[in-house]
Specification:
By secondary structure, the protein is α+β, with helices and mostly antiparallel strands. It contains 18 helices and 16 strands. Helix 1 packs across helix 14 and helix 10 runs antiparallel to helix 11. The longest helix has 20 residues.
Length: 452
């Protein structure tokens, strides 16, 4: 028996209605990026594993989809390799992998094309990425990212503008969001303050989960990662900071007074928050000292966005990275960027039914096909409507009228046009409104006007 066709776990198909909704999201994001002077690039789905490995931390490396070398991929593999470390074996069998995000390929792009680029360089990219993750609600193995990054500038104006972009995109989409901010320097300052500066990554990986697992479980994980009780008790009040954003900034400033790195992080946060509030924001802006986003390459501002009306993971994230191009041999280029998770945004818009009326409707009018001269006249009018920018179709076969009308209903076209024998003689089209069932007779040369 033939196996039932299916998509791999963590991936999905999108039909025409879904694609028109997704394109509404992509077009909204693309137009806001362009409004702020960001220009589009694309990079290949495949990258050399040497480009990807070691950039996302240990967790990220495990989630890379690796691609078997073509041809005799087992050549040179010994029985000892087969029994040894799976990671080492994969490195021998695979030279390439699917990209995990758009940021690392972008850093590679900047270094490779540095002589052709004008700095600061503002780019955006809307492409799929792949992660060998365990699929669950809101988490996919193939999903789109919509990234905007600026490299070659240290100015915090970039952060302020990226927060404006986030606000504008979600304002246009009609989604209420909270933007959470933190700074990697603040996290480094906290690690110094509790006497564990070498355990910064362990601390950030654990505290990043505080929303999901709660403070007690985070403290258990910190103990498992080798932090002592004294360090944990010094960390607790920082993770429990409350009050307004400015009060929390003040408290952090006092707590981190002895850490130069920490003080710098607080100052950066103050500048970004102050500048953003001065320009105005529809979204709520929240300082969250537990926010680490789990990625090792952030060095300054960290950004995460949550939808307020739907229970789902973060729908946008990003931050400042001061040394990402350094790993490809171009040190000293600072960058900052954000990434919209289009698939989660799509799920949010579906849950809240926020698409504008008419999204998903392609054709404005479908003409019946009566064959002969009537069919040819219908085809001529369809062609004329297309020249005027109106999406129009003719049913290809001179089938029974019931079949043609049911096709029109299934295609959700708003109007159904008919040119029969009498209409052909009168020079008119009978147009049926498929929503309310009313029928109107319109002269050939007035059809475009009627549809518009």
């Amino acid at each position: 028996m033939a196996t039932k066709p299916s998509t791999p776990k963590g991936t999905r198909d999108f039909g025409p209605v879904e694609m028109s909704r997704r394109n509404y999201i992509f077009d909204t994001i693309r137009s806001v990026f362009a409004l702020y002077g960001y220009r589009q690039i694309e990079t290949p789905a495949l990258e050399n594993l040497s480009t990807l490995m070691g950039k996302y931390g240990e967790e990220g490396d495990k989630l890379l989809f690796k691609i078997l070398n073509s041809g005799d991929f087992m050549r040179g593999i010994t029985p000892a390799d087969l029994e040894g470390n799976p990671g080492a074996l994969a490195a021998k069998l695979c030279d390439r992998g699917l990209r995990y995000d758009l940021t690392v390929p972008f850093a590679r792009f900047v270094v490779q094309h540095r002589d052709e680029l004008q700095f600061p360089f503002k780019r955006f990219q809307i492409q799929p990425v792949w992660r060998a993750d365990r699929p669950q609600k809101g988490r996919y193995r193939e999903f789109y990212q919509c990234d905007a990054d600026v490299v070659g500038s240290d100015s915090l104006i970039n952060e302020i503008e990226l927060l404006q972009i986030i606000d504008e995109v979600f304002r246009r989409l009609g989604v209420r969001v909270a933007i959470k901010l933190n700074n990697r320097k603040v996290l480094a300052g906290i690690a110094e303050l509790i006497g564990e500066p070498d355990k910064l990554v362990d601390i950030t990986v654990a505290i990043d989960k505080i929303d999901k697992i709660g403070l007690d479980k985070v403290e258990e994980e910190l103990r498992a990662r080798g932090l002592g009780d004294e360090a944990i008790s010094r960390l607790r009040p920082i993770l429990q900071l409350n009050g307004t954003t400015s009060e929390r900034l003040e408290a952090l400033s006092t707590l981190l007074a002895d850490s130069e790195t920490g003080r710098l992080g607080v100052e950066e946060l103050r500048t970004v928050i102050g500048g953003t509030q001065a320009l105005g924001l529809d979204a709520t802006l929240d300082l969250d000292v537990s926010l680490a986003r789990g990625l090792n390459y952030y060095t300054g501002t960290i950004i995460e966005v949550k939808a307020l009306d739907v229970e789902i993971g973060s729908i946008t994230g990003g931050g400042r990275y001061d040394n990402l191009t350094g790993i490809f041999g171009l040190p000293g280029v600072s960058g900052v960027g954000i990434s919209f998770g289009a698939d989660r945004i799509y799920d949010v818009l579906n849950a809240l039914n926020l698409y504008p009326e008419g999204t998903g409707v392609g054709t404005s009018i479908l003409f019946a096909n009566f064959g002969g001269a009537e069919g040819m006249k219908s085809l001529q009018i369809v062609q004329q409507l297309r020249k005027e920018g109106i999406a129009a179709e003719i049913y290809p076969d001179a089938a029974k009228m019931k079949k043609q009308i049911s096709y029109a209903n299934a295609s959700r076209v708003p109007f159904f046009g008919m040119i029969g024998e009498s209409e052909l003689a009168d020079g008119t089209v009978s147009i049926k409104n498929m929503t309310d069932g009313t029928q109107t007779t319109v002269p050939f040369d007035k059809v475009a006007e009627f549809i518009k």
